[in-house]
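PROTEIN DESIGN WORKSHEET
SECTION A - STRUCTURE
LENGTH: 791
TOKENS:
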């Protein structure tokens, strides 16, 4: 019997090619979309989950209470890790972590004539004990305890020394200014490590190069701890809460608390609200998990709708088969066999589509995803999906139509009103999801457009970043003078870190008239001459640093937020003390964004230091001359810094990196919204076919009575437009609430305006009309004689 049912099902599918094509394509698209999304979700959930001590690893963060508000930050004090380990017995290991070069830039290493750039961190001696980065050569206990020691990756060892074995004990030139000894080689980091690096240097070197770490009012590095296996997290959290006040005085105007976050959660949960970690990438993981479920559900609903539309045509076949003795069980088996066969074809096509789309999907998500074809769990999930889809899609024709009495079927006495109502509800549900996706896509793209087009306070076009490294440290003045002589280069300056991200903060700022109980956290920057001119910052008052004023080495620039926070009515000429370094305020800069739009602009203080030995050279090029300017900069760097490869970044591209996650989400929303709409249209097409089938004789009678083709098309279309309008009414408030919550994560954001809802609604109605019109016109042009003929 199974063989006979299979043959009959295959014959039915091949006979009705159009119906089968729509069924298979709709479900295949849903399966491929859901599969790609779930691969992405699974990959996100796997980040940082490979550490053997993951249950005991934590990142320390701080909550700052001031001005009646609470702000959270991962930046901590430079000596925090070693002091926590020394004073909290429950902490087994602790390590600080800070970039060796400016964030986003690499350091130059050389062995003889082999010169390459690598990215790395300063870390504590415990770092390799805490995290599961296998050490291939050397002793992880002592590798980073000595001065000028370096641990390198397998890739770096192979690149410079030929093998991991040959690297141990060798020296490697760092930035052409000193030699480091290789004390350990660790395995290349897995792709699921959130912090990628090629080398590690010891924390002792960081402390010796940065005297500011001894001031507990300064923050910048990250701090990680590993608790003992028997330690109670809540107990430790209570002990470290006020830990910094063992080293600094309490100030009621600015209070800092330390807290712990499980390290495995850090990648997905990194956003702060009122000083507490509330979300982050996990919101996108949840969102797209729902999108995957909805897209697959839409596809399954379509599958059922199309199967239903086709099964009504076969009602008389069912009646005849029952009349000649076919059992209900045989009919149920037959319909389920057809559903499972269609589902199997759709599943196969869906897997092929997912495999074909995967390279493109990887390209714009920045991942290296692959179908886990060798995993038994994957195939079990595929089989479960096949069973579920087959059961759902085949349920109506198998269970409902097979139960009809032959006499009712043959007399066309089928009562399908309740079933049709259910299907209309399902179409409303489909288009509700589609309208929500359209609105979400519009809001995301509008916000990204707002970020890209809003003036951030300086001109990021025609601005180039060059890392200060190697001989550029001592040859900076020559570089600046010669570069500015080129007609395509307008000005040159320098800066610790870069204008895109200023992470260093200090609380060691005092001024005349300051409330002794008030402490303000300032973002701080160290720059060279012509800083404001090079960035094209706007001065509200005063002037930029200038060589014409010898005292500028003890002067400061502030932004508007800093002046407002200090309470100055007239700030120019006022004295500010930064860490026992008093100086006059010579200029007030209009506020500009030096972090992402997720964060409000903070108070900023800037001082001059032309001899600062690391960071970024800022070069303003003339519009239209950037290509020639880059060539000139490369020639200069090769002449003044011959042992270091020339590298540069464009400011606008570095700015875009701040919103990489949002851009990926925007692309995913766009494509999956299109797929959801396409799949929903297939469902609407199926319902239109079903309705046209049911109203064939009504259309024939209307045409005999003089109805025009246009009026018949309108008659058949209006019911579907009503369904879409209901979907719009349901979708709009849900989409507004969802996207308003998403926008709440931005300190600077767009407003969700009425026209977005109108545009999404009109798009949905237009798509529905285009989908339905084919079936409506097809039914309207049929000869009434054919419509009214008794079959």
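SECTION B - SEQUENCE
RESIDUE ASSIGNMENT:
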């Amino acid at each position: 019997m199974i063989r006979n049912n299979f043959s009959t099902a295959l014959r039915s599918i091949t006979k009705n090619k159009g119906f089968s094509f729509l069924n298979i394509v709709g479900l295949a698209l849903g399966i491929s979309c859901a599969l790609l999304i779930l691969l992405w979700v699974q990959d996100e959930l796997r980040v940082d989950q490979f550490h053997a001590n993951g249950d005991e690893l934590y990142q320390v963060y701080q909550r700052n209470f001031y001005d009646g508000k609470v702000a959270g930050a991962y930046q901590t004090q430079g000596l925090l890790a070693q002091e926590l380990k020394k004073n909290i017995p429950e902490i087994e290991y602790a390590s600080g972590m800070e970039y060796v070069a400016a964030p986003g830039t690499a350091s130059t290493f050389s062995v003889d004539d082999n010169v390459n750039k690598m990215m790395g961190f300063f870390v504590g001696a415990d770092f390799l004990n805490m995290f599961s980065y296998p050490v291939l050569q050397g002793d992880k206990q002592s590798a980073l305890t000595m001065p000028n020691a370096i641990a390198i990756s397998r890739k770096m060892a192979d690149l410079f020394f030929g093998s991991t074995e040959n690297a141990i004990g060798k020296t490697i030139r760092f930035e052409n200014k000193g030699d480091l000894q290789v004390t350990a080689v660790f395995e290349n980091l897995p792709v699921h490590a959130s912090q990628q690096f090629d080398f590690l240097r010891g924390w002792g070197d960081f402390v010796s190069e940065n005297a500011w770490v001894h001031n507990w009012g300064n923050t910048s590095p990250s701090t990680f701890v590993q608790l003992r296996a028997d330690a109670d997290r809540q107990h430790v959290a209570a002990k470290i809460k006020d830990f910094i006040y063992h080293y600094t005085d309490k100030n009621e105007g600015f209070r800092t608390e330390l807290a712990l976050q499980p390290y495995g959660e850090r990648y997905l949960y990194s956003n702060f609200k009122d000083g507490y970690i509330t979300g982050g990438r996990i919101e996108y993981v949840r969102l797209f998990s729902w999108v995957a479920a909805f897209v697959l559900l839409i596809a399954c609903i379509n599958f059922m709708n199309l199967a239903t539309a086709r099964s009504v045509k076969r009602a008389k076949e069912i009646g005849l088969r029952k009349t000649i003795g076919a059992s209900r069980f045989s009919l149920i088996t037959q319909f389920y066999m057809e559903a499972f066969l269609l589902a199997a074809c759709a599943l196969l096509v869906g897997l092929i589509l997912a495999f074909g789309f995967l390279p493109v999907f990887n390209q714009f998500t920045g991942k290296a995803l692959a179908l886990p074809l060798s995993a038994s769990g994957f195939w079990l999930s595929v089989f479960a999906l096949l069973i579920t889809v087959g059961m759902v899609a085949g349920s109506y024709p198998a269970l409902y139509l097979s139960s009809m009495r032959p006499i009712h079927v043959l007399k066309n006495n089928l009562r399908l009103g309740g079933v049709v109502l259910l299907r209309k509800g399902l179409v409303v549900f489909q288009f509700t999801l589609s309208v929500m996706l359209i609105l979400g896509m519009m809001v995301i793209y509008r916000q990204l457009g707002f970020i890209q087009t809003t003036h951030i306070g300086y001109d990021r076009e025609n601005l180039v970043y060059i890392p200060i490294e190697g001989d550029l440290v001592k040859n900076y003045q020559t570089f600046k003078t010669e570069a500015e002589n080129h007609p395509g280069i307008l000005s040159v300056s320098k800066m610790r870190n870069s204008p895109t991200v200023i992470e260093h903060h200090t609380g060691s700022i005092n001024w005349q008239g300051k409330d002794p109980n008030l402490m303000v956290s300032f973002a701080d920057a160290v720059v060279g001459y012509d800083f404001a001119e090079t960035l094209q910052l706007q001065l509200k008052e005063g002037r930029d640093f200038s060589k014409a004023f010898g005292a500028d080495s003890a002067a400061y620039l502030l932004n508007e937020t800093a002046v407002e926070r200090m309470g100055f009515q007239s700030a120019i000429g006022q004295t500010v003390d930064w860490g026992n370094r008093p100086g006059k305020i010579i200029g007030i800069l209009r506020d500009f964004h030096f972090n992402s739009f997720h964060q409000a602009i903070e108070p900023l203080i800037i001082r001059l230091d032309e001899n600062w030995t690391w960071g970024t050279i800022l070069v303003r090029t003339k519009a239209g001359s950037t290509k020639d300017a880059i060539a000139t900069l490369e020639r200069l760097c090769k002449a003044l810094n011959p042992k270091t490869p020339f590298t540069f970044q464009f400011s606008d591209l570095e700015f875009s990196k701040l919103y990489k996650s949002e851009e990926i989400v925007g692309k995913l929303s766009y494509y999956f919204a299109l797929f959801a709409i396409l799949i929903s249209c297939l469902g609407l097409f199926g319902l239109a076919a079903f309705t046209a089938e049911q109203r064939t004789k009504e259309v024939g009678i209307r045409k005999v009575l003089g109805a025009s083709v246009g009026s018949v098309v309108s008659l058949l279309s209006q019911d579907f437009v009503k369904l879409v309008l209901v979907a719009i009414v349901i979708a709009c408030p849900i989409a507004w609430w969802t996207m308003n919550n998403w926008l709440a994560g931005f300190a600077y954001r767009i407003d969700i305006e009425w026209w977005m809802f109108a545009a999404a609604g009109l798009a949905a109605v237009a798509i529905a009309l285009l989908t339905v019109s084919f079936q409506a016109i097809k039914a309207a042009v049929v000869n009434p004689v054919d419509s009214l003929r008794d079959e």
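SECTION C - NOTES
Residues 431-453+657-791 form one domain.
The radius of gyration is 34 Å.
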